[in-house]
Amino acid sequence: MDRESPSSPTSSDEEAEDKQTLIHSNKNMNTRSTFEIGNLQNKIFHPAGSFRFNKRYLLAICLLPVVLVIYFSIDVGDLFRKSSNLRFGSDNLVSNRMREAELRALYLLREQQSGLLHLWNHTTLLHNNNNTVGTGKNELEGFTSEILKQIRVNKEIQQALLSSHRVGSNVSDGILDGDVGVAGSGVGRCKKVDYASERRTIEWKPKGNKYLFAICVSGQMSNHLICLEKHMFFAALLDRVLVIPSSKVDYQYNRVLDIEHINKCFGSKVVISFEEFAETKKNHLHIDRFICYVSLPQPCYVDDERVKKLKGLGLSMGKLETAWADEDIKKPSKKMVGDITSKFSSNDDVLAIGDVFYADVEQEWIMQPGGPLAHKCKTLIEPSKLIMLTAQRFIQTFLGKNFIALHFRRHGFLKFCNAKTPSCFFPIPQAADCITRVAERAGTPVIYLSTDAAESETDLLQSLIVVNGKTVPLVKRPTRNSAEKWDALLYRHGLEGDNQVSFSFSY
Question: What family is this (predicted)?
């Protein structure tokens, strides 16, 4: 059946349906895992059923795999036999005995692994059944950490013992039946971190009549979004409202970003569009002061063409002045909050500082999860609602809730990375090895691949990403097919062919 056109008589009914998100929110979808490692410091034991571990028990657990391997891998009696007996012994007999010893050690290691997992489950069960403290926090964290370590070491020893028996060995293959895997059981997951409680943030409370005029020039949309994020930080430091660039000189941000979402996150008007700014200023579109953050290769990293475009908006401006005479985009110097407030604080109504993509200001603060600004949302900058709904439908159709998203840049990075020493451009096999390790740790069945690589590269990459003997599928955004409905929203609203939208969805 062909895709309906924007003027279809049934579009009103579908519009109502489109407003409904097809995927439940994360809090409704997530189920409580049996193994919640991130919350171990809160797990507690009932006094009647609790058991305490000291260093001797932990040491015994640590040494057990080593003792087993040494004991069953070496025939101790042979060490005391005469050399003449060894010379006339059968090589096949020794080989068979070694093989039996190794397999016996492997069997016992599997038993140990099962016991450790049972112990882990028991501690979790005790926690779920009661809420009284039975073990000190530090002792509990040390115990759980050591249990996890021993389970991982146990698995590594098993894999090492199996390595010499994988080919043509029915016995070793049989031992793998009923495998109790660490990844499958949920053990070894990354800890959940409450970033909200650890973030260093500042309040953004702008004065209503003071504006910071954002100008972003460098690179494509991803660079421009980083530039906008840094502008938001500057605006917060300077108590100003941020003016989003006009589509006549930059991207059409209102098609790809949910600008109102940003204001809702702060509970006040902290960002406005250029059109709203122009309406507020009426006949006085003027940048009162242009203080350039960057001075090299040109002030504010703004060339003559960009200045002409700005003036084409009816915007006038004064002479460009520089905050620092030697601030070069190729060698940005580290700056602190005090540097920014001292150089850019001004009583002028409208301030511009040029492109700040390369600015190195409080990097650890800015790059922390959740960003440097205090707000009430999980994510501050989000795509528009149409793009979000389309992405949710794509995930619901192709990926499911457990997947890895991979941005695999190739063509642009070839030149960029080869300019560094050593080069940061990975050959496909090396990249595949890194991706495989991440996929194995995450235990995800599928990878979403966003890339500019050719099929010759992605085909090789796909063939090399194998976890536990199974290929992990690489899913790319398919070419448009009228039979598919996951992207119908973009089609009906005339956004399907928009390169900005496609870029935002893919990256």
Answer: Belongs to the glycosyltransferase GT106 family.
**Whether residue 473 has a cis bond before it, omega within 30° of 0:** no
The pLDDT, as a whole number, for residue 43 is 39
Cα separation, 140 vs 144, in Å, equals: 6
Residue recorded with tokens 């600004």: 373
Nearest to 362, CA basis, from 205, 237, 222, 224: 237
3-class DSSP string for 289-340: EEEECCCECCHHHCCHHHHHHHHHCCCEECCEEECCCCCECCECCEECHHHH
For residue 297, whether the previous peptide bond is cis, meaning omega lies within 30 degrees of 0, is yes
What are the pLDDT digits (tens) for 400-427? 888 999 888 888 778 888 888 888 888 8
Instruction: Return the number of other C-beta atoms located less than 10 Å from residue 307's C-beta.
Output: 15
How far, in Å, CA of 177 to CA of 179, rounded? 5
Q: How would DSSP label each residue in 211-226?
A: EEE----SSSHHHHHH
Q: What is the pLDDT of residues 311-348, one digit of tens each?
A: 888 888 888 899 998 999 989 999 999 999 999 999 99
Kindly write down the DSSP assignment for every residue of 158-173, as one continuous string. HHHHHTTTSSS-HHHH
Identity of the residue numbered 378: K
Confidence band of 174 (pLDDT split at 50, 70, 90): very low
Q: pLDDT tens digits for 269-312?
A: 999 999 999 988 887 889 999 999 999 998 999 888 888 888 88
Q: 135: which DSSP letter?
A: S
**Number of Cβ within a 10 Å radius of residue 416:** 13
Residue type, 421: T
pTM over 0.70: no
Sign of CA dihedral 130, 136, 141, 146: negative
Cβ atoms of 10 and 100 within 8 Å: the answer is no
**CA Rg, the chain, in Å?**
30
Burial 452-491 (b: 16+ CB within 10 A, else e): ebeeebbeebbebbebeeeebebbbeeeeeeeeebbbbbb
Q: What is the 3-state secondary structure (H, E, C) of 91-118?
A: HHHHHHHHHHHHHHHHHHHHHHHHHHHH
- DSSP classification of residue 479: P
Pairing of strands 466-467, 470-471: antiparallel
Q: How far apart are CA 321 and CA 118, in angstroms?
A: 69
CB-CB neighbours of 316 under 10 Å: 12
Q: Are the beta carbons of 300 and 209 closer than 8 angstroms?
A: no
